[in-house]
Amino acid sequence: MKKYCTLAFLLLLLIQNFSVNAQDLNKTAKKKITELENLMSKAQKKGFDVTREITVVWFSKEFLKIAKWDENNIPFIQNSLEKFKPLKGDKAAMAKNLPIFERQKVIEILDKGINDLTLVMNGTIVRRPVSKVDWENIKLENDQFTSNGKPVFLYDYFSKSMGNPTSDSRIYNDHLGNIDHIGGFTPQLLNEDRTFVPWTLDKIKNHPDKKVGYSLLWNTNVPKWVKKQEPEVTKGICTFIGFDIDNPLMRDVWSDILQKTGSITKGRKSVQLGYILANEPHWFSEKGNWAFKRGEMNDLSSYTLNKFNNWLRKKYKNNITELNKNWNTNFSTFNDVTFTFPLEKHTKGTPLRYDWDRFNMDRVVEWFTFLQTELHKTNPEGDTHIKLQPHFFSDDERSHGIDIEALTELTTMIGDDAKTRERDIRYDKFEFWEKYYSYHWQELCVSYDFMESIAPEKIHVNSETHFLSSVAWRKLDTSPEYVRNNFWLATLHGMDAGLSWFWARDPDGSPEARFENSVYSKDVALAKSFAASVNMQPQVANELTQVMMDLNSFSEEIMALRRQRKPLRLFHSETSAINKEHHMTQQYDLYESLFFEGFPVGYATERIIKKQDAKNWEAVLVYKTEYVTDSEFETLQNYLNNGGTVIVDNNNSLSMNEYGQKRSKKLVKSKGHLHTLNTTNYNDLKMFALDLIKDNLPEVVLSESNGLKNKGCNWRIASNNKGGYIMTIINLGKNKAQLKVAMRNGDSVKCTNMLTEQPLDSEFELDVHGVLLLEITK
Questions:
Q1: Whether residue 342 has a cis bond before it, omega within 30° of 0
Q2: Picking from 75-79, 145-149, 656-660, which range would have the lowest pLDDT averaged per residue?
Q3: Which residues contact 58 (CB under 8 A, 6 or more apart)?
Q4: Are 286 and 339 in contact (CB under 8 A)?
Q5: 280-to-25, 319, 387, 676 alpha-carbon distances in Å
Q6: Residue 504, class by beta-carbon neighbours within 10 Å (0-12 exposed, 13-18 middle, 19+ buried)?
Q7: For 666-683, how does the pLDDT look when each residue is reduced to its tens digit (9 = 90+)?
Q8: Kind of pairing, strands 213-217 and 275-279?
Q9: Beta carbons of 774 and 726 less than 8 angstroms apart
């Protein structure tokens, strides 16, 4: 009995100490808020801009409310932490300590705010005033959003405290972002008699039209009347597309909905960010992949099979003998063509697999072309994009049906939900990139450079950024420097608007109802997203807004750096990507080697070479690209005929058609310059190409030493209007970098940190996750 009394007494002491500690931290935070507010008042009287500090105070007050709610609801917090299985640690202790952690982080951001403003007031640093976003007066001008006559980068959260109106200034403001969204358009909007559900249509019609926003086509649910009329409608589904895209009735449904909603939303501010035609679409067809394991795309409708047969008939020019020869089959007619679905993994690289994967992409492009066409019948100026998963380009897999190039070319805006992360915490295995880098940036940069090469004139919207958390990664103590690095990198590589995943706190500090309910239910889809997210991290939420303020204050400089010419273009062929097991992995080696050379890496494809001015680049590099169609091959030859420059690794590249049949033709230089290096080493191509374009490389160079084989600092340089240059440097490396800035001819330069107007020696170090914006003078 005495033993249990002692344990109870110790537990009581722990609870009391926890309470005292929490109260002390809360008092300290409130005192610091007052201190910062008093300092802000003095600064404003002296004419200093305190917009950044206003945000610090706002987040501090919000997270003190959040900490109080979490403190009073520890079982809920523990439950949410436990539902995210990959998160390691004692969940009970984590839940108990979370309010302490949140208050400590509030104190940290307040301390930094006080220190920064003190430095401003005593003249140690000089900050450019924040260029605030005018959410109600955004313009779309060519490749950028503008606000008050300047480029602007928009920010907010995707999935944001659902149930609260977008007019609620407690959630929609300069701190969390203020992007509007009209309720999603869904098939449920249409009745069986082809009339519209009145209350839903009225909600769309009556939605306020005061500020920039977007709308999303939710494709998940299918009305019962459709299922009754079309028993096959749910064949060939994926996670967020709950119907067969080849079904004629569903096409009629979406035609009616898009023409109607397009007409009533035409010209409104609330769709300036575009109509998102789908959320993360994919149609994986290979047995055993993650989507197949979830029951997706495990069957095909008669409509899809008929469409495939017609595609084959056109592809083979109605010659069944040619198909049989390719597939090693003996079908009598195209109507007899059958195959095993889902496809087995070993079919990769076979003619059958090539035909299906290519068809799967073509039918998806045709579906989205249909959607956009129907919208444009009543709203021809309506902007569109798709929330594409860009790892479908950067990864090796190609059975997903997503042709990133064709879809990016189709829509009027670039759309995606790119992610970055540290190590995948689901597996906790050492990953290849960890040898050199602090986080996995490959998907973001490879895909963005590709999409920006396809459509350099289009605005780029990431409608669900996964830089803060994802199913594969999150970290409760994410550093502000990590946040700044990610958003600076994404913006430099093309992102004009980013809606982060996700904000789930109501104004009183509690989680929104969906999360509160899901934590105590069997549905963990939402609940598992809450643990260790931005909703528990004041330092993350604050830094996201702070970096966007800085990017917007220097938006013209960032745009100048972004618009730098892409002098070297990596030739990309989906033909090789479909056929080869690890094509994109191989291509990444060459991309990575050029990524740290001071200019943006570009891509060239058959379409890009045909449609864009070849004066935009110096040379096209072909590396380990064995499979290309005859059309792709002839496009490269025509480029040479017109005076272009092609660098090829060896004679294996371009040697086969899409079916692995040997090509008798070889490229000839004609009026151009053809360099076949007879090498399999990507570094040989890199060095040859850099030497070839040396006269067109930046006049300013950055030298780096970081103790590793690979460079880690991505940098760009642009001329300013004062005879000097602006330079940005982003350290992606796992180590601190020793850097030196100089003219290419060896002359010394002077550097100034543009964010603080402090001079910087031409030789300096940049910490892990460090970001700089410099002014360079000779």
A1: yes
A2: 75-79
A3: 173, 175
A4: no
A5: 42, 37, 5, 40
A6: buried
A7: 999 999 999 999 999 999
A8: parallel
A9: yes
User: What's the pTM value of the predicted model, to 2 decimals?
Assistant: 0.96
Determine phi and psi for 50, rounding to 5 degrees. -120, 25
- Return d(Cα 647, Cα 678) in angstroms, integer: 10
Give CA 685 to chain center in angstroms.
29
- Residue 739 Ramachandran class (φ > 0 left, ψ -120 to 50 alpha, else beta): beta
Phi, psi of 294 (to 5 degrees): -90, 5
Q: How distant, in Å, are the alpha carbons of 71, 138, 160, 290, 536 from that of 180?
A: 32, 12, 10, 33, 24
Instruction: Concatenate the DSSP letters of all residues of 528-593 into one string.
Output: HHHTTSGGG-HHHHHHHHHHHHHHHHTHHHHHHHHT----EEEE--HHHHHH-SSHHHHHHHHHHH
Six-digit token string for 30? 């409130």
Spatial contact of 692 and 618, defined as CB atoms under 8 Å apart: yes
Please report which residue ranges of 345-474 form alpha helices under DSSP H: 351-378, 391-394, 404-410, 442-454
Which residues 6+ apart lie within 8 Å of 654 measured at CB? Answer: 622, 625, 626, 628, 633, 636, 648, 663, 666, 667
Rounded distance between C-alpha atoms, residue 129 and residue 112, angstroms: 18
CA–CA distance, 19 with 520 (Å, rounded to integer)? 26
Instruction: Name residue 777's beta-bridge partners.
Output: 750
Give the Cα separation of 97 and 74 in Å (integer): 9
The β-bridge partners of 505 are 511
**What tens digit of pLDDT does each residue of 355-407 get?**
999 999 999 999 999 999 999 999 999 999 999 999 999 999 999 999 999 99
Say if residues 184 and 582 touch (Cβ distance below 8 Å).
no
Phi/psi for 54 (5° steps) reads -60, -40
Instruction: Provide CB contacts within 8 A for 302, sequence distance 6+.
Output: 232
Q: If DSSP codes are grouped into helix, strand and coil, which group holds residue 439?
A: coil
Buried b (16+ CB within 10 A) or exposed e, 255-291: bbbbebbbebbeebbbbbbbbbbbbbbbbbbbbebeb
**For residues 684 and 162, what is the distance between their CA atoms, to the nearest angstrom?**
53
DSSP output for 75-120: HHHHHHHHHSTT--S-HHHHHHHHHHHHHHHHHHHHHHHHHHHHHH
- Token pair listed for 767: 């910490």
Distance linking the first and last C-alpha atoms of the chain: 81
**514 or 745, higher pLDDT:** 745
**Coil vs helix vs strand at 51:** helix
Query: Residue written as tokens 């029951």?
Result: 295
Instruction: Identify the three-state secondary structure at position 163.
Output: coil
